[in-house]
Amino acid sequence: MTVKEYCAAPFWTRLRYRLYRNPLVLFIPGPLIMFLLINRFAKKGAGRPQRRSVLITNIAVFVMFAVAVWTLGLSDTVRIGLPIIFFAAAIGVWLFYIQHQFEGVRWFRHNEWTVMKSSLYGCSYYKLPNVLHWFTGNIGLHHIHHTRTAIPNYNLQQCFNETPPFQEINVLTIRRSLKSLWLNLWDEDQQKLVSFRSIRQ
Q1: CB burial class (10 A; 0-12, 13-18, 19+) of residue 124?
Q2: Which of 28, 68, 133, 184 has the least C-beta neighbours within 10 A?
Q3: Residue 56 is assigned to a structural domain of this protein
Q4: Within a domain: residue 186?
């Protein structure tokens, strides 16, 4: 929400938004709700290919779960599978969150939006240790992925090294990215993300 939208919203809408943006909600039950419930249904207005994709994914998930229960039993499947699903989902939500919501990001209304502006100013370069770049398929080079989605993940680093404009955008380290947890609202006047506390002041 923008600062103006938040300030103009009814009490219950503001409370709901504050709960949703709380890190304890966003990164603990949030990822499980997203991956185990919300993503199991096609979005309203989705076309036939999207609905078919969700259905095929759900069938595959059900088959994997059934085979795991058949071979390990329900208790062991849940005890082993749930922590894996939770950590994978939480890391996925964190990576997506941090690459679009960070100190220095720029957001644009539809009439000002372009692919290049969105990629260079609305996405981060999440500079991770090399081993984490490998494990995450170079998703830290998110700004390049948004510029040209057809570039395979194994060529993103080369593209970054050979294209100076890609090197001049917001660089996030793990330490710097943690500050983003408290940036909750878009201030259109200042053109930056701000915290709930800052608007009270």
Answers
A1: buried
A2: 28
A3: yes
A4: no
Angle at alpha carbon of residue 133, lines to 123 and 98, rounded to 5°: 30
Structural domain of 7: 1-98
Residue ending a domain, choose from 98, 113, 142: 98
Q: Within this chain, do residues 46 and 128 fall inside the same structural domain, yes or no?
A: no
Q: How far apart are CA 141 and CA 146, in angstroms?
A: 9
> From its phi and psi, is residue 191 left (phi > 0), alpha (psi between -120 and 50) or beta?
left
Residue 27: closest CA among 81, 83, 88, 94: 94
Does the CA dihedral 141-142-143-149 come out positive or negative? positive
Q: Which two tokens stand for residue 67?
A: 């085979």
DSSP secondary structure, 84-113, as one string: HHHHHHHHHHHHHHHTTSSTT-----GGG-
What are 154-159's contacts with CB under 8 Å, separation 24+?
A: 157/133
**For residues 104, 108, 113 and 117, what is the CA-based torsion angle, rounded to 10 degrees?**
-10
Residue with the larger pLDDT of the pair 133 and 10: 10
Give 136-187 pLDDT, tens digit per residue: 888 888 888 888 888 898 898 898 889 888 887 778 888 888 989 999 999 9
Residues with Cβ < 8 Å from 35, sequence gap 6 or more?
A: 85, 89, 92
